[in-house]
Task: inverse folding
């Protein structure tokens, strides 16, 4: 786990508490109204509804490209969709053990380099043994996990070069303008991207409906 000096302040996390005191930086210092206290800090929010649908889209696109897969269709769906969600399982540790002390994107479960390493290992394994069911499912699972951290990086901080460089990167930031805090995400344009991913997955599911009914388990 990457240890920093506490939760980093960014466009999303504009304030933090230090010794019971709220400390602000940058934009927040100039406009205290923008400060979100740590009790309201939505650490799990970036791309919070699109992960499983994105795993579904990933699985469908792989199924359409892989001929004679050594795994069943349902196993491929499970690997892709579970992988697309698994990095967020660290929220259990974040809330129950770490008590929100460290941003959960700093845990190794959200390090792109960690998943890219596992993805490379799985790819080499699959290259060696193209008939291996476990190698194929591991590769798809790691692809799902990598997709997760890429999507998280859209409007959330991701430590792309952890554990070597302690610096987060986010493509866009969501400013705290509305109350309650979750309205900031609903009214931000990035939510339309999430909705678009969900819609895309829904359309794919509908298109595959006849196949879903006959899908082997
Ligand atoms: Zn995540």
Result:
């Amino acid at each position: 786990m990457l240890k920093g000096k506490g939760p980093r302040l960014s466009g999303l996390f504009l304030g933090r508490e230090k010794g019971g005191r709220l400390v602000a930086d940058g934009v927040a210092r100039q406009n205290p109204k923008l400060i979100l206290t740590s009790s309201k800090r939505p650490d799990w929010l970036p791309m919070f509804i699109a992960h499983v649908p994105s795993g579904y889209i990933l699985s469908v696109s792989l199924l359409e490209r892989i001929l004679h897969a050594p795994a069943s269709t349902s196993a491929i769906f499970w690997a892709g969709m579970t992988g697309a969600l698994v990095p967020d399982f660290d929220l259990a540790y974040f809330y129950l053990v770490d008590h929100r002390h460290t941003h959960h994107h700093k845990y190794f479960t959200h390090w792109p380099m960690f998943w890219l390493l596992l993805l490379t290992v799985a790819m080499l394994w699959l290259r060696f043994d193209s008939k291996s069911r476990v190698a194929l499912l591991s590769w798809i699972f790691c692809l799902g996990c990598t997709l997760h951290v890429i999507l998280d990086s859209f409007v959330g901080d991701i430590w792309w070069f952890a554990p070597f460089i302690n610096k987060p990167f986010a493509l866009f930031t969501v400013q705290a303008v509305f109350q309650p805090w979750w309205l900031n995400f609903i009214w931000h344009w990035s939510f339309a991207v999430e909705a678009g991913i969900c819609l895309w997955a829904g359309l794919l599911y509908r298109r595959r409906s006849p196949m879903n009914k006959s899908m082997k388990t």
The chain has one domain: 39-172+179-213. The pocket of zinc ion is lined by residues 87-88, 110, 148, 152 (CB under 6 Å).
